Design the sequence.
């Protein structure tokens, strides 16, 4: 069975995110390394790093993941924003090493006033600059995107170009976000459609590059290019297609992180955390293979 994780707040310390994920029955956790809407974060103290490592050891959680700041745009044609983005992403990789985390996931970027090809080229050069002086123990996972506006990464070909163009492509992988892939126009609503989409991913990028999943249903329909996450089985993707993913033997040891809306719901007169409900759904699908 895959490692099921969840994005958790680091309020109260990095170790608290681990504790919250473990308390709800998850196998792993995704975090921000700092406030996601700020360029810089406070240095990570020895005490904070040690507490995080201790929490992982005590709970048995593995494969923690960092999601980078939403401000970062490695495709920006504006030199000042690009410079700040490069510095901020390099810092994310340093912070990951500080916490003993081996992967950082990022939305590739938006080309805004330039062009698709120029944006991809800018991302490649930015990654070369960053990875040349960043910890070799940390890999970068380029996330599939829904394709809103000028966002890059909504086509598998975008990610393939970024990876092949980078001088350090042995340190690049892909995070497959189900809502984003569905919204961008790829279909996996049936077993045959799922197999076709994964075959296309393998042909264009290589299935060995797929290192993590974000599991989210989609509020909007296929090819809407609108990024709005829903609870598993409560959106336009539906429950069954997630079963294709979680029972695929190729991903039996691939970490899969929920990024579904937070909150609670009432089931059988009982208030339950939505994260718990979504996890139960995923585990049920995985067990019914």
Sequence:
């Amino acid at each position: 069975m895959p490692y099921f994780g969840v994005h958790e707040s680091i309020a109260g310390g990095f170790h608290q995110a681990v504790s919250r994920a473990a308390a709800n029955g998850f196998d792993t956790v995704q975090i921000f390394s700092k406030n996601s809407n700020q360029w810089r974060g406070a240095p990570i103290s020895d005490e904070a790093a040690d507490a995080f490592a201790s929490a992982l050891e005590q709970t048995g959680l593995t494969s923690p993941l960092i999601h980078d700041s939403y401000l970062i745009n490695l495709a920006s044609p504006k030199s000042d924003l690009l410079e700040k983005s490069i510095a901020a992403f390099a810092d994310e990789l340093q912070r990951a090493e500080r916490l003993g985390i081996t992967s950082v996931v990022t939305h590739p970027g938006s080309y805004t006033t330039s062009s698709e090809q120029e944006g991809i080229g800018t991302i490649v050069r930015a990654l070369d600059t960053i990875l040349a002086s960043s910890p070799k123990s940390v890999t970068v996972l380029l996330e599939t995107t829904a394709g809103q506006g000028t966002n890059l990464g909504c086509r598998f070909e975008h990610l393939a170009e970024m990876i092949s163009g980078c001088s350090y492509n042995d340190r690049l992988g892909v995070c497959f976000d189900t809502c984003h892939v569905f919204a961008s126009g790829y279909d996996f609503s049936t077993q045959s459609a799922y197999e076709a989409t994964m075959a296309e991913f393998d042909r264009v990028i290589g299935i060995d590059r797929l290192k993590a999943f974000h599991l989210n249903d989609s509020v909007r329909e296929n090819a809407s290019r609108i990024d709005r996450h829903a609870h598993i089985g409560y959106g336009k993707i539906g429950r069954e297609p997630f079963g294709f993913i979680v029972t695929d033997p190729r991903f039996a040891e691939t970490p899969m992180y929920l990024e579904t809306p937070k909150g609670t719901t009432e089931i059988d007169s009982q208030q339950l955390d939505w994260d718990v409900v979504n996890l139960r759904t995923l585990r049920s699908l995985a067990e019914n293979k």
